[in-house]
Structures are given as structure tokens and as C-alpha cells.
Design a protein that fits this description.
Blueprint: H1 2-52, H2 60-81, E1 82-87, E2 100-103, H3 110-117, H4 120-123, E3 126-131, H5 132-135, H6 139-149, E4 151-154, H7 167-174, E5 178-181, H8 199-207, E6 211-217, H9 219-222, E7 240-246, H10 258-273
Parallel strand pairs: 1-7, 2-5, 2-6, 3-4, 3-5
Antiparallel strand pairs: 6-7
Helix pairs in contact: 8-10
Length: 299
């Protein structure tokens, strides 16, 4: 009777070990399958992005047309509605190409406002990351946007930045093109700063280049989401004041996590937006009481 019980216990142990081994094998196979699927999806997305890209928009004649449109068409129209001011542009005097330009995003005016604020040599070597699902649905639209703003397509949802998903962007950076990115992924509906995605940090770290943070102020008031043209209350109303603040370059550390890099970018944006209060000043201790000497009566 005792030996039968021992036999059943041993058999149960063998069954449990076999089941555990099978579960582990299934989990490993499942993980490998998920990894292969993710890699395949990223590679396919990379091919799609390369097919959507418009390389001719970066040739010399296209750059000349783009500069003409910006200076003689967009700039005069924007000046009717806005009073631009640029702060920190001298940072580019000490920087070589390329860099990743990272800005907050709350209006379709953000891209032309930043491009106007850049020094000419930088503007002519800057590509703008654009949402593939928004600007690249129709051929005519994508080619027009690419010509005017030198856009490159990026996927906003899924795919990551590995396994060939951004090979076309890596190629541009290797050719010393700067890249302007809006890490929020979409325009803020109320003008506040949203969640920052970490793709800019990954690209900067892979290419050993800095991030130049940019804070935009006033574009949301001039043309918020839902409007296709800047607005004024009346014809002679005051223009919207728009400011572009360029920050000091942020160099990602070799082993620094991408979220830590983006936390430094966010700290700059929040400081410029006034969302971070200055540290409280220490309260001075109260003065020590002054001893009162007894006064002798006058005789």
C-alpha cells in the first residue's frame, strides 16, 4: 500500500515535469513567432515608407522652388496674421550637421514657422517627419507637401524604429540631412504638451548626434486644430505673437535610456511653457530678539 502511494507520487511528479517542459517549449515557440512577426512587420513598414517617400523633393531645383515658396508666398501670408520672434538661434553657430530637431506640436503653422526661424543653410538641409497615414494617402497631396516642406513619411502607430522601419531616415541622416520631428505624434487640441514618444532619442543615439529642442508659442492661438487658415477677429486686429525658442543641444549618453533622453527634452519644453515652477526660495529664519538693557532713572 505504501509502495503504491509512492509510485503514484513519482508518476505525478513525472507528469508535472513533462507538462512544465511542454509549456516552456510552447512559450519559447510563441515568443520566437512573435519576434519573427514583429521583425517582418517592421521590414514591411520600412519598404512601404521608402515607396511613399519623394526623393526628388530634395534635389537642387526642388530646394530652390521650396525656398521661393517659403520666402515669397508663405512668409508674407503668415506675417499678415503673426508677429514672429526667434530666441536662441545662435545655437546653430556652434553645431555641425546633422541634428534632430524636436518640437512641441499644436498647429499646422508649426512646420513653416520653424523652417522660417532656421538659418538658411540649416533650412535647406532639413527634412520634416510627416505622418504617413495623414499626408501620404493621395499622391498629389504627398508630392505637394514634400515639395513645400521637404517631408519624409513616418508611421505613427506601431513598427518601431528597428528592423528597417526607418532605413530611409537613416539614409538621409547619413547624407547629413537634419530631421525635424514632433514626438507627440499629433497636434495638441488644447495647446498643452502631450506624451513624447522616444523615436527621436533612438535615432539620435544610433547616429551619435544631438537633439535640439524647440518650443513653439502662439501657433495654437493663431491656427488651432480644426482650422485650415489662421484667424483674426477683425481685419485690423493685432497679429498673433508667435515665438520660437531654440534650446541648447541635448547629447544622448551611450548607455542612457531613451526615456531619460526624452525626459530632458520634456524638461526644456515645460520650462519654456512655464509649466515648471522655479524651486522655492529658502525661508530666512526670524531675527534673534534684541536684548533690552534696563534704563536707569534720571536723577
Amino acid at each position: 500500500m505504501g509502495s503504491g502511494r509512492v509510485h503514484r507520487v513519482n508518476r505525478s511528479g513525472r507528469d508535472a515535469r513533462a507538462k512544465g517542459t511542454e509549456l516552456g517549449r510552447n512559450a519559447a515557440n510563441r515568443s520566437a513567432e512573435i519576434g519573427r512577426t514583429a521583425a517582418s512587420r517592421s521590414a514591411e513598414m520600412g519598404r512601404n515608407m521608402r515607396n511613399l517617400d519623394v526623393p526628388w523633393a530634395r534635389c537642387a531645383p526642388a530646394r530652390w522652388v521650396r525656398e521661393t515658396i517659403l520666402q515669397f508666398v508663405l512668409a508674407p501670408l503668415m506675417d499678415v496674421y503673426m508677429r514672429p520672434r526667434v530666441i536662441g538661434r545662435e545655437v546653430f553657430r556652434r553645431l555641425p550637421h546633422p541634428v534632430i530637431l524636436v518640437a512641441n506640436h499644436s498647429s499646422h503653422l508649426d512646420t513653416p514657422t520653424i523652417l522660417r526661424a532656421l538659418p538658411l543653410p540649416w533650412r535647406q538641409r532639413t527634412a520634416v517627419a510627416a505622418a504617413a497615414d495623414y499626408f501620404y494617402k493621395r499622391r498629389g497631396v504627398k508630392e505637394l507637401v514634400a515639395l513645400i516642406f521637404n517631408t519624409v513619411p513616418l508611421a505613427r502607430h506601431g513598427g518601431g524604429v528597428g528592423n528597417g522601419a526607418i532605413d530611409h531616415v537613416d539614409h538621409l541622416i547619413d547624407q547629413r540631412w537634419n530631421l525635424l520631428m514632433f514626438p507627440e505624434g499629433t497636434r495638441s487640441r488644447d495647446g498643452s504638451l502631450g506624451k513624447l514618444r522616444s523615436g527621436a532619442a533612438v535615432i539620435a543615439q544610433q547616429h551619435h548626434i544631438p537633439i535640439v529642442p524647440i518650443y513653439l508659442k502662439g501657433t495654437h492661438e493663431a491656427m488651432p486644430p480644426g482650422r485650415n487658415w489662421p484667424h483674426k477677429r477683425w481685419l485690423l486686429a493685432r497679429r498673433h505673437r508667435v515665438e520660437v525658442h531654440f534650446g541648447l543641444p541635448i547629447w544622448p549618453g551611450i548607455d542612457e535610456h531613451r526615456s531619460a533622453v526624452m525626459a530632458r527634452v520634456r524638461a526644456f519644453l515645460e520650462t519654456e511653457a512655464g509649466e515648471v515652477s522655479p524651486p522655492p526660495q529658502p525661508i530666512a529664519p526670524p531675527p534673534a530678539p534684541v536684548a533690552e538693557w534696563p534704563v536707569s532713572p534720571v536723577v
